[in-house]
Amino acid sequence: MPRVSRAQAVQNRERPVQAAELFRERGVDHVSVQDIMAAVGLTHGGFYRQFESKEALLPEAARHAYDSMAARLTELDASVADHTAAQRRFIQTYLSPSHRDHPGQDCPTAGLVQDIARTSSAETRDLLTSGVADLGEWLDQPGRDGLVTACTLLGALLVARAAAGSPLSTQVLEQVRAALISPT
Amino acid sequence: MPRVSRAQAVQNRERPVQAAELFRERGVDHVSVQDIMAAVGLTHGGFYRQFESKEALLPEAARHAYDSMAARLTELDASVADHTAAQRRFIQTYLSPSHRDHPGQDCPTAGLVQDIARTSSAETRDLLTSGVADLGEWLDQPGRDGLVTACTLLGALLVARAAAGSPLSTQVLEQVRAALISPT
DNA sequence: TGTTTTAGATGACGTGTATCATCTAAAACA
DNA sequence: TGTTTTAGATGATACACGTCATCTAAAACA
After folding, report:
1. Any idea which of A143-147, B93-97, B100-104, B173-177 has the lowest mean pLDDT?
2. CA A119/CA A62 separation, integer angstroms
3. Is the shortest CB-to-strand distance from A44 to strand C under 7 Å?
4. Residue B13 confidence (pLDDT)
5. Nucleotides of D under 7 A from a protein CB
């Protein structure tokens, strides 16, 4: 049990940060330190060697999540003809039933807004803030303010999640999708 | 201390439901049964005479909140010239710094989406669902889908709350306000 | 006024969980 | 190969909270 190779150890240090996608799925309060470490195959003990506290994990998790999101945006741009196509593609995916049903992946803002709004350090708030701002810029279009688009996406996704099960859920996704993709 | 008049008792039964605005402020998990009862001037003991469990309070609180929101919309319509003016007024208020800073009041959806998405009974989800649907209808405009507007408002408010303190917070409010009120 | 009812108070109980002190064996290095 | 270092395991502590059984005094009613 104790002592793995130095390389392993370094790698392990990253894993709780990734496992913190549980935060996005269930909400910070519904994830225990044990849950996180168990998801990584370790026991709760080692946690406090790496992190000050459970609270301190949130900003690291947020940073990690926003980084991968940024990476995904770049990829998206590279994979299609022009930026407009990328934007359209992003919106489609963002408002897909699959994204609705898997909060652990993709948009960190959707999973964390509320938790961040309530408890967080300035650092964490800044991460969210600039994450949203960046997305807003990326979504900018001639006739439409990207920041507004970002808010619409976020709101729609959250409503769709809360309404999951009801027909309104899918309806919201589709109606918003239509509105954002067609002109003006 | 025990035993108040029958009328008082009936009235008291309503008060925890109102006090559950704390749910919207802090999130369900950060409000204890004691907090709720204390807010009402009572002790935690009486709670379980009135409610099955803490969980059972959420739907009642949600219903209460959506009811008062509906009432406010009606009032708004009565207080201004036409429906369009009422809509404009609503959006202004919804995206005001004051609304941002007082999550206990006004929009129940903004305070509860996440909590409802995660844990709730079908009943609670339905409350949110129809609350959003109703608001969407109310916000409908010739050129703009009301449901989409509702999502935009929600998203903007949540971002503004999470970003509170940063300049982006106010910027989001203003930018979205501008986009929703000007034509198209 | 005496009896009955019951709103609300008190005080436990059990559980879940963050945190920390301590222990261990294996890796690293001599 | 012997010594030192340390990643991670174990177990204990402390506390917050939901829930409930029990108690009380005053209101309701005769």
Report:
1. B100-104
2. 14
3. yes
4. 86
5. 5-11, 16-28
